[in-house]
Amino acid sequence: MASVEIQNVRKAYGDVETIKGVSIDVPDGSFVALVGPSGCGKSTLLRMIAGLEEISGGTIRIDSRVVNDVEPKHRDIAMVFQNYALYPHMTIAENMGFSLRLAKRPKPEIAERVADAARILGLADYLDRYPKQLSGGQRQRVAMGRAIVRNPKVFLFDEPLSNLDAQLRVQMRAELKDIHARIRTTTVYVTHDQIEAMTMADRIVVMRAGVIEQIGAPLDLYDRPANTFVAGFIGSPSMNFLNGVISDDRQSVVTGDGVVLPLASPAAAEAGRPVVYGIRPEHLSAGSADAPLSLAITTVEPTGSETFLLGSIGEQKVSAQLRERIVTKPGDQLPLTLMPSNAHLFDAKTGLRIE
Amino acid sequence: MMAILPTLAIFAYVRLYPIVDTLRLSFYKWDILSKRKPFIGLENFRELMGDHLFQSALINTTIIAFGVLIITIPAALVIAALIFYRTRSRLSGFYETAVFIPHVVSLVPAAMAWKWIFDARLGPLNAALSFFGVEPQAWLFDPVLSVICIIVLCSWQALGYAVLIYLVGFKNLPVSLYEAARLDGASGPQSFWHLSVPMLKPITLYVSVVTLISGFNVYAQAFILASDAQGAPGRQVRVLVLDMLENSFRNYRVGYAASEAVVLLAIVLLLTLVQFGLLREKGKA
To answer: Residue ranges of the ABC transporter domain (chain A) (predicted)?
Structure first.
């Protein structure tokens, strides 16, 4: 086991810089998720840790050793690829034992370590099969097994669950979390799915366009997003953003069409400053007729446990996720209430959080 | 259906008819000129069994075909791998072309050039060997050496095509597998041996059969290299097609030559079936 320190790392292809000076500290034994939309550089960063991409600037340390120019095989890391990258002509046992075979370990030792990993992953009955005879979830486990067998210092995951169907993804998510809890190997996990990141990671790194937007524990990111990008990216469905200005008494935000949005405490911004008022759909609830907000409903999506409503408050689009069952239809006006303490305030120009 | 009939008709006339007619002819005795064409059943095939010239032609052809195969397949795999993994080099296009050119060059001038290379007195091969103190060899007159010369010439020609097909194969191998192998600790040659070679097996099978079939059809290479003067091919390196030609147009025994062609067809057919069999087995695994 080891820590991974990434300091001011850059990646440039010619004049185009895709990673613009990124610093992340992955403590020993932790599970860090890199999330961000497609093209944000998270996979490139992971491949740089693995040694599959050259580093244009900065340093990467694994276990306090600078590995910038160290061959992948000497970094003592294991990586699980999105498409599993299993060797199609080898059996499951051969796939899992390939690295040990290359390292010229004795055969009984290889067999034992493969058997151990197979037991952890529930693959013991499949060792003689070929990858194409297994289901997607089983292949995913084999890819995991190939990593576990080597007992590496660091695990790297590159969107490992994105080829699985929704149900299996939830199941594998739990299994991965369970395996990490048992073997506690330092893990860096790349995903574009913020739910995966939220549920599995100790710490989340949100990236956009080659820079880090925020690093923090999952619930910190949810409760105190540093900017509108993180606020919109973390949480599903996305946070609602309503444009307005700080009221004269600084106790609320007033939108262009006169809707008053309450704040828990006086805003740390001067009156009249343009701001973005953020409120998560799940923090809106149906209120009595004299509630301050009124949602003009355009779409109703009942899922049984919850009801999703899409509509507008004034001119601005808003979605609400209500836990109670309400009978309503498009065209209705629904009074909504909210707890001001759940509201977030961002600067309209920079998008940065205002405390 | 109606639209492809003309194509089918042309295909049948130029492809199927000659095969069927050769099969038919092999049961007859015919001297090209006479109207009389008596049916003699399997008599031609019976005679083939005891024909020493035919047997030596069959043995020579088989040795050449398999010799070409044994040289071409590993050489093509290694060259294709070198070209593919050195693609950053500006010269990779040049290498590809250089390897492929022998395949498109007209056979006769190429063979004439090789004949000069192998020439006992004037050839550069003997000159080069003399640097290492090797006695000059009569490459094209010694029965064993001349077979080797033909194998070298045929391999040189077959190589370009095999490399091209292998390159296509290499380009289709998933990159992530090689990345996984790098992380697993494999060096370049280890990835080649443990990943590329087994994963290119279907291509190897295909290239093998194509190479073998063209090897069994060897004719002009032997005709030019192993004959002292054109038009008078020696019996030194007798190959099947040469034997057939002589029987048809020199000895006027068309039926007999047709039976030789049938034997050649049977061999080629068998090899193709073996390939399909192996491919299907691979599909089951």
So the answer is: 4-234
Contact, A128 vs A93, CB < 8 A?
Answer: yes
Cβ contacts of A81 on chain B, cutoff 8 Å? 176, 179-180
Q: Is the Cβ of A130 closer than 8 Å to some Cβ of chain B?
A: yes
Output the six-digit token pair for B28: 């007859």
Summarize the confidence of residues B230-251 as an average pLDDT.
74
Count up the domains in chain B and report the number: 1
Identify the CATH number of the domain in which residue B150 sits.
1.10.3720.10
Distance in angstroms (rounded) separating the CA atoms of residues B202 and A66: 43
When the pLDDT of each residue in chain A is averaged and rounded to a whole number, the result is 91
| Extended beta strands in A27-116, E state | 31-35, 57-62, 65-66, 77-80
Judged by CB atoms closer than 8 Å, whether chains meet at B199 and A52 is answered as no
User: What DSSP letter does each residue of A127-155 carry, written as one string?
Assistant: TTS-GGGS-HHHHHHHHHHHHHHT--SEE
* pLDDT for res B63: 93
Looking at the domain A237-347, which fold is it?
A: OB fold (Dihydrolipoamide Acetyltransferase, E2P) (2.40.50)
Question: Hey, are the CB atoms on A72 and B183 less than 8 Å from each other?
Answer: yes
The residue of chain B with its CA nearest to that of A88 is B199
CB B257 within 8 A of CB B178: no
Is residue A166 scored above 80 in pLDDT? yes
Q: Is residue B19 part of a domain?
A: no
On whether residue B25 sits in a domain, the answer given is no
Contact between residue A223 and residue A234 where contact means Cβ atoms under 8 Å apart? no
pLDDT at B230: 42
Single pTM value for the model:
0.81
Instruction: Specify whether the CB–CB gap between A203 and A216 falls below 8 A.
Output: yes
In a domain, B98, yes or no: yes
Q: Which CATH class is domain A4-225?
A: alpha beta
The CA distance from B119 to B139, in Å, is 7
Residue A38 phi/psi, 5° resolution?
Answer: -55, 140
List where CATH 3.40.50.300 sits in chain A: 4-225
